[in-house]
Amino acid sequence: MRIRSIHSLTENDRLAKAIYNENGQILLKKGVTPTSGMITRLKKKGISYVYIEDELTEGIVVSDAIGEKTRAQSLKTIQSSFQSMSDKLVLGKSIDMDKFTPAFSNVIKNILSEVKANGEAISMLSDVFCYDSYIFHHSLNVAVYALALGRKYGLMEKELEELGLGAILHDVGKISIPVEVLNKQDKLTDEEFCLIKEHSTVGFEMLRKSHTISMVTAHCAFQHHERLDGSGYPRGIKGKDIHLYAKLIGLVDVFDAVTANRVYRKAMLPHEGLELLYSGADTKFEKEMIQAFAKTVAIYPLGLEVRLSDGRIGIVAKQNNNISSRPVVRIITEEENMVTPYEINLEEHLDVMIVSCENCLSQHAAS
Question: At what angle do helices 101-117 and 134-152 cross, to 10 degrees?
């Protein structure tokens, strides 16, 4: 299978992976050949990429970061819990976080179990969703990324559970923000942006009152928008004053935000998101932390069509652990001519590198 930009998807393509709606239910099944009407609706829903079947990429199988069952159950817990909290706010009632902690803790334990079992670099591109409720999927994705990065950082089990709980609840304060502001597609006014920034403090106040959530977990909500150079919010604290958990979550929060499908903007590919993080190395984020994250995620996901520095075009076929910037590529074109596919391991050929991603950044599509 290979990744295909929604803008170059045609009625001749056959889906290699199902597409899900916001509730985790299958919208388009694997094997479906999308009509022009379906493609138009997917564009309107904000889908940027899909996976298609392809003879040239036969044998390239993309696995999900976490299993379908775990993802569906996790999303259901996040959505129902956040909705219940929001309903209480509307009615002017206080929120008892202790009632929600057991369910969230169970979600984190399930995710952590699957992250440990998954020996490959993590890629969220493999989970193709159309959704209106971005916050639920974002909270889950940030938890998955944070746990994977936390393991790479050598955190112990208890620390990972604290980190995971802080990650899944880092944006809980956004339930207090009007939906029309939260989902606004146009540029926010200064007043609206100030309102958005309040979610860090609101979330902290909600979590710190809990008897079942640690104070360091509560500070994940409070500090995940703080930055090393003091340019963050809500307090503008710097460097060592920011808790390790908040630094980890702040990094993956930005990465997931820029690589996620949104109706009003095109998602970045993982390597573009990583470049954005590196542009803030040692000013916004710790460079060492970015480097660790680069070994955790699939910078060039399986199925991605890439151009090499010597002009050859191929499909990412396998990942090399800890060096996801240099995967195994299945070559399909040399000097713009189709060739019998063969593979090159970029970990062993250091004189060759990936210089661009063909199909996802343009209308190019080898077939």
Answer: 50
Q: Which of 243, 273, 294 is the last residue of a domain?
A: 294
* Residue-wise DSSP of 137-193: HHHHHHHHHHHHHHHHTT--HHHHHHHHHHHHTTTGGGGGS-HHHHT--SPPPHHHH
Q: Which of 109, 61, 17 is nearest to 330 (CA)?
A: 61
Mark which of 272, 294, 316 sits at the end of a domain: 294
How far is it between the farthest Cα atoms of the chain? Answer: 67
d(CA 327, CA 347): 7
In angstroms, rounded to a whole number, what is the distance separating the alpha carbons of residues 302 and 50? 12
- In this structure, the answer to whether residues 235 and 312 fall within a common structural domain is no
Instruction: Note whether residue 322 is domain-resident.
Output: yes
Q: Which two tokens stand for residue 204?
A: 């902290």
Distance from chain centroid for Cα 52: 20
Residue type, 150: G
The CATH number of whichever domain residue 347 belongs to comes to 3.90.105.10
- Region of residue 120 (phi > 0: left; psi between -120 and 50: alpha; otherwise: beta): beta
Among residues 106, 110, 123, 151, the alpha carbon closest in space to that of 256 is found at 123
Which domain does 281 fall in, by range? Answer: 68-294
**Which residues 6+ apart lie within 8 Å of 24 measured at CB?**
68, 71, 72, 75, 76, 129
Tokens, residue 39: 């493609």
Distance between first and last Cα of the chain: 12
Q: Strand ranges (DSSP E) for 166-312? A: 305-308
Per residue in 226-283, pLDDT (tens digit) is: 999 999 999 999 999 999 999 999 999 999 999 876 655 677 888 999 999 999 999 9
Q: How many domains does the chain have?
A: 2
**Entry pTM:** 0.88
Do the beta carbons of residue 313 and residue 329 sit within 8 Å?
Answer: no
Same-domain check for residues 335 and 209: no
Distances (CA, A) of 251 to 233, 264, 270: 14, 22, 13
- Taking only the tens place, the pLDDT of each residue in 174-215 is 999 988 888 787 888 999 999 999 999 999 999 999 999 999
Q: For residues 256 and 254, give the distance between their C-alpha atoms in angstroms, rounded to a whole number.
A: 6
**DSSP 8-state secondary structure symbol assigned to residue 62:** P
